[in-house]
Amino acid sequence: MIVLMIAEKPSLAQSIAKILSNNDLQSRKGFNNACSIHEWSGKFMNYQVRYKMTSVCGHVMSLDFVPKYNNWDKTDPSELFSGETLKKEATPNLKMPAFLEKEARGVDYLVLWLDCDREGENICFEVIDSVKHVLAKPNDNRNIFRAHFSSITEQDIKRAMNNLGKPNKNESLSVDARQELDLRIGCAFTRYQTRFFQGKYGDLDCNLVSYGPCQTPTLSFCVDRMDKIKSFKPETYWYLDVELQHSKTGQSFNVKWSRNHLFDKDVVYMFYNDLKQSSSALVTNVNLQEKTKQRPIALNTVEMLRAASAGLGMSPIHAMQIAEKLYTQGYISYPRTETTTYAANFNFKEVLVQQTKSSSWGSIAQDLLNGNMVNPRKGVDQGDHPPITPTSFASPEQLPGDLWRLYEFITKHFLATVSRDCKYEELTITFKIKSEEFSCCGKNTIENGWTELMPWKQIDFKEIPNLKKGESVQIGHIKVLEKQTNPPDYLTESELIGLMEKNGIGTDASIPVHINNICERNYVKLERDRRLVPTNLGVVLVHGYQRIDPELCLPKMRSQVEEQLNLIALGKANYRDVLKHTLRIFEQKFHFFVQNVSLMDSLFEDSFSSLSATGKPMSRCGKCRRFMKLVLSKPQRLYCEYCKDTYNLPQNGTIKLYRELKCPLDDFELLINSINKNLNHPFCPYCFNNPPFDDMKKGDGCINCSHPTCTHAFNSNALSKCFECQNGLLILDSTTPPKFRVICNNKLCKLIIILPDTLIKADVSDDLCENCDAPMLNIVYHKDKTPLENGQTSTTACLFCDNNLKVSIENYLKLANKKINFDRKKFTHKHKSAGGRRKKRVVHKNW
DNA sequence: GCAAGGTC
After folding, report:
1. Which intervals hold domain Topo IA-type catalytic (predicted)?
2. B1 C1' closest Cα residue
């Protein structure tokens, strides 16, 4: 009998397999190269069985609309609230369903070891759906089990194995509902907003005007802070500035008024007038207190990201990439966790021993091993993964750049959690001048403790004079000072992470993605000290939602949906009912938004320029013969003011007019898309958006156009089938004479052959090469550089056979370091002509 | 081309 067990990720499959097999197992790689299968023999329900343990990589499936809704032009966004959806493979490269099916074929028992959260419960059912039909008893749910574990410790894993339960359908359904809501709501609003605003404004500078239940509240936090700054009214306040002078040492020091500051000038002057004649202050109290600055709790993801942003200047998304590298290379434990408490059996000694090798903190690790280690503070156990700790020693030489900086932080943080608290004494001296009280405070470190590892957290030493109760101190001066309150500053990335966590926006794994999204979409800009400053676009979006339906950008919107989802998870509400109910609310919100979009639009009008006011005249429209404008800000596009039509353009490279040449199909003037100095694609802006032939795709240019006679289409310019990709056609590019190149019309093929720079003219002749049957080139050489005899400059030659021309192919192969044995027979046309007779060429795609 | 959630 075979028991198949599935974990959520390869690393966990390995850890769990090691524990359950008592480290006696065989491992092999799965066919998708991502997952391994670990096998051992043992007992299961009193049977002698063979265990097979493997994993998925997160979700197996993801939700999307059926293909017919992919076309933004043909779908009204409101249809997305009811349009049919389908589950498709989350990561097609991994071929996860096929992999699972293969490993599950004929298996007797299935044990699910997915993470013990709702997403994990959902993945359980994705796994079941993938394998159920190939199990030994496909229709017997009694052979499917769920392991419930809260940590990856031997005790917990073995206990889970001995107490197998069943997967929880309700929890899984709550995730299905979440997926469907996010998809429908996010896509409907995003498509509507994008179409509406991009169709009106030319300088939004973003490809997408997106909406999402996490990204939008995230943006809203940043805009709220900006609003607080903008609406801040400074207030003037006054306070007594008192300097005292130690009579013996002559040392002068400032003392703080117990009333701090007051916003009433007259009242402050009243006190001032009362005190100004005084010459001395009386020490009324001297208080020496020992204080502690507590060692940090164990590190979880969010805290690591905050520290990486604030202390190391790394964006959260970058910090996570670095952390994942450290993890896969075995330097740190799993970096996505909410838990801040170490497992009961965590082996501190082992980690400390590893770190004694460090030249920088080795002595501290040794000191902790020598009996000076203290128990870590108790944090929170979320039951997901242990806190982030180093798992092996690394030196700065082993880890370049940011890998080292993050590893250093994680290691120092770990050492800090088991180091002694920082202790310092605080001396507070209280004075009285008449009836007003003043004080000053000195600080002195007794023991650095854990702050030894993080000097920037150490206590700043502050000296104050040594005074005794009852002593009298001379007054240096008493003044009234006037100051103003200051506005808050823009939100730092680190503060934003804190706000998101507090409000339940995103998860440890997705918080960095949401922050990255609002940066990439150009809603906020990252400025000094990693502060997030909203752009015009970010501001008008949030202010627009606030005008139309403030709930759309409030964090509570997410939590209210979560509450509904909780009901499903707890089995208190029916999945379909909740989904239907919540979708209806959002559909109504969507329609209300559409009806009132002018409220948001008026804000856009103030900030952005209309399409017609932006851009520069570019080329003539084939419909009205008027000039269309090129809108340069993202997304680059052409706009015909008269016809009110927008034409998408290639997004890479520059666009210029192609010698006022016209497309024979629609009269639109042709353009050239220059991707780099050697790669130019002519295209018709109309055909680019509305392909004229079945074999042409949206986004294709002239070299992919099968027009039978147009001089720009491949029928007129193709020389042969591409010898590099065997897929496309080699096309003569004569768009920028006197430079000539041969390129492949397969977008995925990178081939570029640069023809000799001695040429001044080249086009494709009607003659075919006698030798290889490829179309010949009519060429003209520069009169001073011609390789032809008798100073002759023009000729007809074959690229593949002519000695002067085929050099360029050899150069290409040399440059690309290709060892293709160039065989011109490969290019032989199947209808080889007899004796080089002129004939009209027709290039077939299947050349 | 769109969301958010897993993870590689």
Report:
1. 168-590
2. A208
Retrieve residue A545's tokens.
Answer: 């939602």
pLDDT (tens digit per residue) in A598-609:
999 999 999 999
Nucleotide nearest to A562 (CA to C1'): B4
**Residues of A classed as catalytic:** 334
Mean pLDDT in chain A? 90
Q: Which two tokens stand for residue A359?
A: 């030249």
Question: Residue A210: which nucleotide is closest by CA–C1'?
Answer: B2
Residue nearest to nucleotide B6 (CA to C1'): A58
**Are the beta carbons of A192 and A591 closer than 8 angstroms?**
no
**Residues in Cβ contact with A367 at an 8 Å cutoff, skipping those fewer than 6 apart:** none
The whole-model pTM stands at 0.81
pLDDT above 60: residue A526: yes
- Domains of chain A with bracketed CATH: 2-167 (3.40.50.140), 176-227+512-526+536-607 (1.10.460.10), 236-294+423-484 (2.70.20.10), 301-419 (1.10.290.10), 611-716 (no CATH), 745-822 (no CATH)
User: Backbone phi, then psi, for A99, in 5-degree steps?
Assistant: -60, -45
Which sign does the torsion angle of CA A758, A763, A766, A770 carry? positive
pLDDT digits (tens, 9 = 90+) for A606-620: 999 988 877 788 888
SS (H, E, C) A82-135: CCCEEEEECCHHHCHHHHHHHHHCCCCEEEEECCCCHHHHHHHHHHHHHHHHHC
